[in-house]
Write the structure tokens for this entry.
Amino acid sequence: MIRYGAYLLLVAVGLVLEMTWLGRATIVGVAPDPLVIFVMVVGLIHGSEEGALVGAGVGLLQDIVTGVPLGLGMLADQVVGFVAGLGGGVVYIESVWMPAVSAAALTSLRVGVWALAAHLVGLLGGPLLEVVRVDLVTACYNGLIAIPIYHGLRSLDRALVRFHEESR
Amino acid sequence: MVLDAFARRRQFVVFIVLCILALGVLTTQVRSPEQRRIGWLGVAVQVVLAPMASGLSRIGDVVDRGWALITEIGRLRTENRRLAAEVARLREENAQLQDAAQEAQRLRSLMAVRQQSFRTVSARVIGRDPSHWFNTLLIDRGPRDGVRRNDPVVTSEGLVGHVIEASGGWARVLLVLDPRSAIGVLVGRSRDAGVAEGQGQPMLRVKYLSRDAEIQPGDQVVTAGLGEIYPRGLVVGTVVDVSRGEGDLFREALVRPAADLNHLEEMVILVAEGSQASR
């Protein structure tokens, strides 16, 4: 429970930062999305089931807070958590470049799923090239910020698991 | 053995159930009038996060202003000279417009045209939608200040959008650029009617203009006042391109919004007279 409480607090802080400061820190009009890295870490460490569940929760909260129709972020983030969980058994988790490459790939996947779902329900009619541009820029941006966030979150997660085991 | 097989497939079952749930929520949302309905849970989340966003936004504004002060001193001197000249020109224009306004007032009372009157509530932006395609803002005024759903929002330059959610001391504004926004408008001197739709991009697309409409780049676009949200005559933007629409039945125009929607900090909400602030 403590771990999920800490997750909720982290997500709340992340959401407020996304709405306020990160919205100003854009590169060619695109803001970073550190919550994708959070969902990735949960999926990589705790498996695809927990990754998908946490991803769905984070995405739903993100939809509520950011003003988009509910369900879009929920779908995209749960896919990210699930795929990260599947990848957890395949990739070498201690590799130096793993966080950056995984964050870039999963961010690209998130933007793709998000745009596809929005297009399918008739909410997004923009040109495909614009979708590709935003996808690539967001992926690179998240790849750049992924390494410190990944290590910070992993250390926090380890500490929370240890605390949970010691308090049993 | 059956349990083992289930345990192996459980993650896929959970994933598929979550996908169905997310798609269900999404399709329900898309069917609702504003293509978004957050319910009491969403309002509760916003009530918790809006004060945090307001505090962080204020800190960000202070940092931005400090940085601007350092970097813009040279530019401000030139700008000051230009503005002084513009003030003189605007004073002259203002005198002419006051004459015209008085004349319009007389004519309006003669025609007994009843227009809904508004009072204004100024608001600050405390949060933005970081997604690239949807355009909403969180502002620091809500029902506590008399702000209600569907109240129009403007700046001195032109129309910004309208309120889609409001609770306590915050409200969410749907910008005119959002794909969920559609406004009845009049274009150019010929006052051809059309519908200005957001595309999630920097330009609005005005659809359903008559194929014989006399529209050219530079023409002004104003609200038609046909729906229940926007009053007549609010400046929406300027035509930048005109083209033939689907099947050549209609013309379409690309319109650049008059308000700088990417750098909004303060705005004004038009609240219908008689709307009381809730305590």
Notes: Chain B has a mean pLDDT of 84.
